[in-house]
Design brief:
This protein is mainly alpha-helical. The protein has 13 helices and 2 strands; from the N terminus they run H-H-H-H-H-H-H-E-E-H-H-H-H-H-H.
Amino acid sequence: MVSEIDKLKREFLEHLEIEKGSSLKTIENYERYLTRFFEFAKIKNAKEVTDELVRNFRLYLNRQSAGNNRATGATLKKKTQNYYLIALRGFLKYLTRRDISSLPADRIDLAKVSERSLDLISTQELNRLLDAPKGNDIKTLRDRAILQLFFSTGLRVSELCSLTRDIDFKSDEFPIRGKGGKVRVVFISDEAKKAISEYLKSRKDMDDALFIKVGVEKRTDKKEALARRSIERIVKHYAIKAGISKKVTPHVIRHSFATDLLQNGADIRSVQMMLGHSNISTTQIYTHITDKQLREVHKKFHSKI
């Protein structure tokens, strides 16, 4: 027999999917976090969620080994622990809106985490990365278009995977549906438009996906469209080819897109909209980069009198 708490959890996840428009990945994560809490708590109804229960769960999380680090004694990172608490708070807020008695969500504070650091590459490294694909075969043309489009638009890798050939790439902009189903406009540079045009001219297939597998890549899967992992491998390949020793991912190029805009005078609200961040606090992490640049300017030019 399904308990009340399991029924409420299912209804909450359905609420995320239908009313909130959350991605399936987000819903899967929330389900995993909540399931772990309920398995620990061994409760059957919402009233049984108490301050003491949440505190004990936090102690439990804090003492868990982190993935493959059991041998070293490393525990779950505070950031990872917070994911469980965020999911639980979201669930409790949902119960409050439905007038279901339980622990108020605001009784749960997140653990303090160290300031987030950004993985960045220099302007010189970025230029080498964008110039790394050499040649006129379809694979090289495709990979050059991928890199140029990433830096031109700041797209997430999932957003780039969703692109089709229906988009008018002769225009300077196009709409993209991002996290939570939110639509924003992204802008294409002349370099990106040229790279995409050359790539599309080399295509002989009829597949709708913009970026597809070519050559030996087709042997691994019947699907034509490039998946997330394939695009991540492409970026990594050209980073190595460009002589970049740092780990380079599509998200690192997204960081470069944001910092490039801010360093050249763009306001943070505009950058927030172009990145598709729902909360400006997410975008503000990039201001630390420009703060550092300002410190260097101050040190160089400020009078020592």
